[in-house]
Amino acid sequence: MTMSTVKADDLHATDMESDPAYREAYEALEGEFSMINALIEARTRAKLTQAEVASRMGTTESAISRLESGRVKPSTRTLERYAQATGHKLQIRLEPALTR
After folding, report:
1. 67: burial class by Cβ within 10 Å (0-12, 13-18, 19+)?
2. What does the radius of gyration of the chain's CA atoms come to, in whole angstroms?
3. How crowded is residue 71: how many other Cβ atoms within 10 Å of its Cβ?
4. Which terminus, N or C, of the chain has the lesser number of Cβ atoms within 10 Å?
């Protein structure tokens, strides 16, 4: 029996198109995904490891890992410290919600 590999991106695209409940749940988390991506991109641009960011923030590498994985909801102060540690500035904005 031959097993085929299915790419997560392909599954996601299919589910977004065909499963309204999946799409709604995903869109509800879009802000969190966006924040996580922004954190990781800032650290990558700064060419820093999680350990280096942690050292600059006076915290642990595991705390940075939890932050970048979305397992915790950071305070504004934590986001400010992360931005400073990576040589960025924090900007928060509100955007109109998309209506269907």
Report:
1. buried
2. 17
3. 9
4. N
Domains and CATH numbers, the chain: 12-85 (1.10.260.40)
How many residues appear in the chain? 100
Is residue 32 within 8 Å of residue 18, measured between CB atoms? Answer: no
d(CA 8, CA 5): 10
Evaluate the CA torsion angle 72, 76, 77, 79 in order and state its sign. positive
pLDDT in tens, the chain (100 residues): 566 787 888 888 888 899 889 888 887 778 788 999 999 999 999 999 999 999 999 999 999 999 999 999 999 999 999 999 999 999 998 888 776 5
Burial class (CB in 10 A: 0-12, 13-18, 19+), 32: exposed
